[in-house]
Model the fold of this input.
Amino acid sequence: MAGRSHQGAARRENLLLVVLGLTYIGVFAFCDALTRDAQGMPALWPVNAIAAAGLLHFGRARRFAFLAICVVTQLVGHVLAGDPWGLVAIYTGLDTTEAVLLAAVASRATRGRARIRSVREALLVIGTAAPVSAAMAAIGATLTDLMLGRDFGTVFVGWLFCCVLGMAIALPATLVLLDDHPWTHNPRPAPWVRVGIYALVMAATLVAFAQAEGWMAFVVFPAATLAAFRLGPKGAAWSAVIVAALAMPLFALGATTTGETATWAAVDRIRLGQVFITMMFLTTLALALSLYRQHRLRDLVLRRNRHLAAARERAQAANRAKSEFLATMSHELRTPLNSVLGFASVIDETEDLSAEGRRRMALIAAAGRSLVTLVDDVLEFARLEAGRFELTPQAANPLVVVRETAGIVAAAAAEKGLELRVSASGDEDARFQIDPNRLRQIVLNLLNNAVKFTSQGSVRVAAEIAEEPGGHVFRLEVRDSGIGMSPAEMDQIFERFSQADSSIRRRFGGTGLGLAISKSLVELMGGQIGVESAPGEGATFRVSVPLGAPEAADQRPPMAAPAAAAGTGRVLVVDDHPMNRELCKLLLEMEGYEVAMAEDGDDAVRMAGERDFDVILMDIRMPRMDGLTATRAIRALDGRRGRTPIIAVTAEALPEQVARFREAGMIDHIPKPIAQTELYDKINRWIEH
Done:
């Protein structure tokens, strides 16, 4: 079996040797007989590139046989043409040398594979081979000048032109034609389709060039492009061969002229045609190779997608690691933001600043709040994506939530000169089991987007509670007169990290997570969200959420007891970061609290055992002893000191993290960056009098 395979390969190489040898002889005869100029220099000379491609493909024995065919053809051809023996020696020696060198550089450019499979490889082959042809032209011009007295400049230009352009067509085309790669990833076109396409290329070439009054090269490009598109790189290569075989004799014989070319010499017309064929071939070859690469990448993607099912479990484990990483990054980002926002607030309240100074402090605070929003968006989406998010229903009215949220956005709308109009329909006293915080987040995202993307006009909000057979339904409509969206943009607007296009993100900023989070929250509530828009005509977002039945009056929770008076307690601040300790001390002393500070958990446990405190504000991540361990140690103390309210003050804000705080004995949680009102409210809530 192996012997028969070896014999078959040998027969194929012998056949290729015969075909390539005859091709070399035929091309040599045509170029040498029909394209010579007055100096005896051919205007078209692709034979060296054909020889180089053959040398790359043959084994050692057939390589020498093919090289012998080339040398003999050179000698016989030049002698029959009547060239002086000195010129015969120069031509034969330099052409043979160029063929060998072209084979060497092409082999290096293709890493020994003797094939072209990409635009980069094609350009690399041509780019590395062109200097070889230029060097041979310079050597040939020098030798003919010294030995035969011919003008160096004339010979050099003619030699360079014919060899470089001939190589740029023949070398990549021959490498593509000798490559037995199937190229196409689609079903191979039927023989009659291939014949029809090549016949179309022939017809277009004849229409373009076989007329004395002018040539219409533009008709060749569509046919050659079709060949490249349907038949791949080989279609582009055969198209170049067909066009060259038909057009070059017409140019050489002067059968086709146009405009000033009617007065040109034959060699100039040939060079013009050669430039055209070179550009046509390189363009169609680049197209075919790009399509091939696209199909190949598509197949790679499909193969990789088949492995995704097996990798899904690993991805879920990685998702847990990602959540931990996001929590760590949140902590590291929130800690400095806590100082930025806190000290900005303290300076604004306590220092005598100029109007410009207050404006700048406001800018600092606004920038810090924007960073907090970005961090919150990323964490929120990570929790939703990981399926770790749960709603916290409580009795509330969605219409009240909408009015409160609109009040938050009103200042930003007024600053831009926008009219913010809110209308509500339904019973605002009715209370339903909803998560008001998440509903507020949805409404806030929609209103912020409406204000952000509207430069003039209005933002209108319509909310209603309607009774339907299955229960009450909350509907929300947010309409703006902003930039609007195209249908393609609306298809992706609810995707994560999407903001219509990159220019939108550059102009307006943001993570592109707000609407994705809103969509996830609405769906978690069992509702739906959608959008209608057109470019330049604004956008209308609609939300529908089922509410169920309203609560009876006696089911409403009792009013909370008034909070304790502010500034009447002793607070222990535990934090390893000096700026955080200083900030908390300033904020608390501004309200009149007595403040003590501990640098880590060890100090906190010692101080909590020695003195009575009304509240302990405990950081979580600290050296030596962390906040959870310190909390457990304090809870083990005897008497009142072991029952001291401990509030976690940390950048760790994920629900599972807050649950760990409570398990350790903490009674509440204040996220960083610290909001003054939240800090005071929670301390007042837990201080014992």
User: Anything to note?
Assistant: The longest strand covers residues 458-468. The radius of gyration is 41 Å.
